[in-house]
Sequence to fold (195 residues):
Amino acid sequence: MNLLINYSIFQSFPELESERLFFRRYTQDDSKPIFRLRSEPEVLKYIDMYPIQHLHQAEEFIEKNLDYYNKKEAISWAIVEKDSGLFVGNFAFWRLQPEHCRCEIGYALLPEFWGKGYLSETLKVMLDFGFNKFSLHSIEAQVNPENERSISVLERAGFKREAYFRENYLFDGKYIDTAIYSLLETDYYEMTGKE
Fold:
């Protein structure tokens, strides 16, 4: 059982890969696809954030995420398709609670990459990293309860619903519910047979 997170992951950025995807550090070359990701109505439908309006906001997003990594506060990857080299989306461990060996995950994919199993493939790599390299004890995902696709992927990965908060989030003049899902390292190891 993990009692301390592994801060050594912040010494050298961990580039990862799966069968079809690379997971790497952001570069400023990612600003145009990040702009699309954070301004695309389909992507933002359940993320409950306002779309960015200018390319410089995407550049600032990249700088902010690189800074979070340098400050050991979060780690975020650009997801890239191996065959094409195209930017697919992003994945992050953030809202780190080191005293509890817990953090939240966040992710988004561009719509043309939906339905290909890329999010499930990403979760497989990231959960292995989170429990076996980062030494997390629990991983949390906060989801808009209407986002059935995301919930389905999380449940297939072993996440369980821990809580449901009614109208706890005010966005765009409307109160929105939040579902909290999490996965414990013990459940992950039991499910995968890994130790």
Summary: The first helix runs from residue 31 to 37.
